[in-house]
Write a structure and sequence with these properties.
The protein contains 14 helices and no strands. By secondary structure, the protein is an all-alpha fold.
């Protein structure tokens, strides 16, 4: 456990630093979107490009990993919507709550954290989860959140609205470009490679710091009080139920003879055990859901994940090198 904590403590400590900086007004609210933009459009795409360029295509797009993780995500979304929708929480709130229950912070936190814990072999499965969540999980939840406003619309309109976010997100394009370089054996020119490396090296610390600042900002701008009964159950689904379903699905796939190595299943399960993606609070604001509730769920999952994620890694026998 000590070796695991030696890896996880710095990651969660940087999130806490970002939260405290915003909470104590050392980082003004107006600066948070700029930090988020730097990570999303510059640093993180460069990091994902480098990982994609160094990962074989069949590892990056493993069909078994995509199917196991995708089915688990859909099950979590359906169960969370069914459990939380009611007179107080309409479909947009239930749908965005389901998104925080099924979408781990695999971009800002997961790729570097699991690479540090498990080594380079974890990168492929974690990138599979990121692609699945960007294109499948988020699209389904956004479509549900807009279901009332799109009632009677043509199927093509619904699909275009749901896919607009993923297709304008730079992260999948960075992964795809890295995969293309991997397949073709291409290399960036020296000066360009140096710029990409410098931006990629900045991705992890700035992304983690930004997570904390985003959560504090969203919590501060909440428009209503959120009862604990609307927060902790969804955080529990994210941190406990989600990884259990992914692990059970992976073991079932292995029993059926699917090519899913034990190391890939470990990476997949730990990716599902990550806290909720911090940027979902921005989506909640965009699609008319209660972003204060979403921010509190993400904050709860982030605080609790330090213990639950570390404990799960220890139970699964992870031994960082």
């Amino acid at each position: 456990m000590q070796a695991i904590l030696a890896v996880t403590v710095p990651f969660f400590a940087l999130v806490l630093c970002g939260y405290l900086a915003a909470r104590l007004n050392r980082l003004p609210d107006s600066a948070v979107p700029g930090l988020n933009g730097f990570v999303l459009f510059f640093a993180l795409p460069c990091m994902l490009f480098r990982f994609g360029a160094g990962t074989p295509l069949l590892t990056l797009l493993n069909p078994t990993v995509l199917v196991v993780y995708g089915l688990a995500a859909l099950l979590i979304v359906a169960a969370t919507v069914a459990l939380t929708r009611g007179p107080r929480l309409g479909l947009p709130d239930a749908a965005l709550g389901a998104l925080v229950a099924a979408f781990p912070n695999s971009g800002f936190m997961g790729v570097p954290l699991l690479a540090a814990l498990l080594g380079p072999q974890a990168v492929g499965p974690v990138m599979c989860t990121l692609l699945t969540d960007l294109f499948l999980t988020s699209s389904v939840c956004i479509a549900l959140a807009q279901a009332h406003g799109l009632a009677g619309a043509a199927p093509g309109v619904v699909v275009r609205r749901a896919l607009r976010g993923p297709l304008t997100n730079p992260l999948p394009w960075a992964i795809a470009l890295g995969a293309l370089f991997s397949v073709l054996g291409l290399q960036l020119p020296g000066p360009v490679a140096s710029v990409v490396r410098m931006l990629a090296d900045a991705a992890t610390p700035v992304a983690l710091f930004t997570i904390g600042a985003v959560l504090c900002r969203a919590q501060r701008h909440a428009t209503r009080h959120t009862p604990a009964a609307e927060v902790w159950p969804v955080a529990g689904i994210k941190l406990v139920v989600h990884p259990l379903i992914v692990y059970a699905g992976g073991r079932a796939a292995q029993a059926l003879g699917a090519p899913l190595p034990p190391a890939a299943l470990t990476a997949l399960t730990l990716a599902a055990a990550l806290p909720s993606a911090s940027n979902v609070s921005l989506l909640a604001e965009r699609y008319g859901a209660d972003n204060g509730r979403i921010a509190r769920i993400i904050l709860a999952s982030t605080v609790l994940a330090f213990g639950t994620f570390s404990a799960l890694a220890w139970l699964m026998g992870v031994q960082p090198s």
